[in-house]
Amino acid sequence: MEKPKYHICVCASFRAGGDPKGVCHKKGSSGFLSYIENEILERGLDAQVTSTGCMKACDYGPVMVVYPEGHWYGNVDSETAIDDILDALEGGGPAAQYLIA
Question: What CA–CA distance (Å, rounded) separates 6 from 48?
């Protein structure tokens, strides 16, 4: 398997016991996974999307992280926010309005 150019991690708030309890889950982050995957395919991005356990950034939830850039995005609570982030990724820079780290 070839490693993708980008790895997009979406906080799904899972805890050690497997229960999703955090802010990201409550704000619907898991529901965005299929939208992100479809956008990756439609845009032809060499990227993989993964849901994660709690990223401990609940004040900014839903949270999404893009590697290898290491850009942490907060308040990713709409398809518009996701589109803005993916547009910026395609353009070679960050989506500054959502950056938290």
Answer: 6
